[in-house]
Write a structure and sequence with these properties.
The protein is mostly helical and about 400 residues long. It folds into three domains: about 110 residues, Outer Surface Protein A, domain 3 (Alpha-Beta Complex), CATH 3.90.930; about 180 residues, no CATH class; about 90 residues. The chain has 14 helices and six strands. The strands form two sheets. Strands 1, 2, 3 and 4 form a four-stranded antiparallel beta sheet that branches. It has a two-stranded antiparallel ribbon with strand order 5-6. The longest helix is centred in the last third of the chain and has 37 residues. It is globular and about 80 Å long. GO terms for molecular function: metallopeptidase activity. It comes from Micromonospora matsumotoense. Keywords: Hydrolase, Membrane, Metalloprotease, Protease, Transmembrane, Transmembrane helix. This is Putative peptide zinc metalloprotease protein.
Amino acid sequence: MTDSTTTDVASYLSTVFGDRPRVRPDLLISRELGRGPDRMHLLKAPGGRTFEVTAKECFLIRGLDGSRSLTELGTAYAARFGRRLGAAQWSQLLWLLRQRDLLETASPAGTVPAPAAPATGPAALPAGSPAGGFGGGMRRLAAAFGWAFSLPAGVAVGLGLAAMYACVAAQFPTLWQDARPVFGDWRWLAGIVVVSYLSAMLHELAHGVAAVHFGCAGVRINLVALSCRVDEYQFLPSRVRQVVIAAVGGVLNSLVVAPFLLAWLLVTPGSAVHRFTAAVVLVGTVQSLANYVPMAPLDGYKMLSHLLGMVALAAESRRYLWSRPRRWVLRHGAPYPWRARLALGLYGVGWHVATAATGVGVAYAGGRLLEPSWGRVAYAASAALVVLTITLWLAGRPRRQLRTPPHQPTT
């Protein structure tokens, strides 16, 4: 494309979209992420949907800050990627941005809007933005416990919890013997349920406080339904902060266990309180550590996804493994970079092994339960039911989780 043609294209598009098109300044753009073999960015305007764009499209969107004309941005794009955009590609990108309400209306003739690059994360949002249903209360909690998110506090808590769980592991046989009578008394079981529920509420509250502390505004918590949703969570520029937000819920569960373990160590052995605290310690330990299992939708899965910089890790790992035979035999299918092959391959194998082990355990337990009535055929029936359940679940997962980008790349 000649320079004169480029100028004509830019002049034509300027009459439609303005001399210096500009995306919304409140547009959030994530850092570069991986989805299977592809690299992409997430885009989101407050109140709108989330879109996936390629690195080339993200370069152009970041450049549409009102400070450069399309000709200048096209020159920068050509210098970066070695090619110039044609009229059709410019038109497609700008129309898509406008249709999705990501592009500001054209400025009045003769004026140049003040440059305003899209925000790279929620930290760029106004400090007074609402923080969900708890509003100011969440912000006050975040301010009061801000020290808890410092590195020294994190190291101290980590060492303390490691010592606590080492004690639980060493005393497990005694804890189990003390707790067994409690599991047969509905009154003590009700007490354990109450403590576990309160611990779960603190778990969700901790997620919300951490999110507000790190600058996220759209935090919505329902402590009754035990849910916490953070709209800007995926757009934090630091993966460490994302991991901390995901991990802090399990830390709160562990801190709830600590006073019960201390009470068990101090209370007179054999008393009702001694047995109850032992049961709470065991149940609380399972409740706390289960959060870190790297399987969806647990927090451990989110932590691993953030550390690897990937979205849809579980679904993409299955797609990768299931595509390998066709790739090896027919040479069909998308090529994966080595980092993606390593991460998806290891996670996919681990996921399948864990699923198979869980299925075997459930099938065996079901067989043992039904054996007095059905005899040896109970094991076969239980195994068949487990296989059928897993098969139907896997058949439905790709259709629900795997999704293509919202539009074809324009660059």
